[in-house]
Every structure is written in C-alpha cells, then in structure tokens.
Amino acid sequence: DLSLVLDAPPPGSFNYSDNREYSVSDALDLLNSVLLTKGYTLIRRERMLSLIDLSGEFPEGLIPKVTLDEIDERGKHELVTVELSMGRRDPEAVKAAVTPLLGPYHKLLAVAPTRQLFVTDRAGVMSEVNKIVQALPEPQTPSPPPPKPEPKELKIYPIDKADPESLLSILKELVAGAQLVYDPNLNQLNANATA
What we know:
Radius of gyration: 36 Å
Oligomer: single chain
Number of helices: 4
Largest sheet: 4 strands, mixed
Number of strands: 10
C-alpha cells in the first residue's frame, strides 16, 4: 500500500524467496539490507517509498527524523536522523567517539552552541551511538573562585563607663578574628577588624 518513486534503479536484479509473512517494516528492512551494499536505500515517508542513490547528497528533508523512542518502530537497516544531546561534552570528541559505529552513508552534524548532535544512519546503530555519547565524561563545571576577604580597618573607641576587662572578654567572643587592644593610658579600645 505504498507508492514507489524510482528515478534511477540500481542495475541488475535481486531474487529472494521464503515462506514467511513480513510486515512492511520487516520487508523494507530485508530489502534495505541488500540495497545498502549496492549504495541504495528505500526511504518510507507516510505512504511514499523512495529509492535513493546514496552515492550523492541525501535530498534535504527526505530522511525521516525520529526520536530514540521511535527507533524500535523502524527497521534496523532503515536510514533515519536522530537528535541527541551532547551535554557539556566537546563536540569533536563526541564525533570522534561515535564515527567508528557508523556506516559508510552516515551524516554527523554537531551544533556546539545548542549542544545537539544530529546523526543520520541506520536505525539499528542509534541506540549504541546514544550509549557512547552518554558514556563520555562531561567536563566538571569550574568552582567559583573563593571570595576575597574583606579588608580590615583600625578604629578607636573611647571607653567612658564600661569596665574595660569585661568589655574585652565579651567583644572577643562576639567579634571573631578581630584584634582588640585596650589602652589604659588613653582609656580607649583599639579595634582592627572588618567593617
């Protein structure tokens, strides 16, 4: 129940027979497993089936874009495009890691600003490609630099009515890190501390 678009068929013939019944996806997958060895593939979009010569550029928008959840609905030899997240991983490192898994007719596009990886290849390899991407370590986010300590300043406080010894013992507990010195000659408290 599909309309076939066949602009440039591959040369030669193909014979295959068995007594199994095939779903459309299984039949297309079987045909694509042979066609890919000859540099061709069948692309299914809605009710249209197009034979594509893979020696040239893929026609823009013809390869269906699917999610990882939809991969199981496709044949393992069917060409699809999947969008994966690279996180904070280096795009060149991601491309280098996944390229060995891909077939000869793949396309890879890493979009660094949005941290997306678009992979066009057989549906059967997409789960493994995603596993490799997710297994690559993400760089650690740098910790913020420690805050600079507040500068200390020297202030002088005259002591009128308070007992200097009691005042010093209370202030040393309340103001940690301050240098407090009582000058009995001038009856004042010298404090070197942050504001």
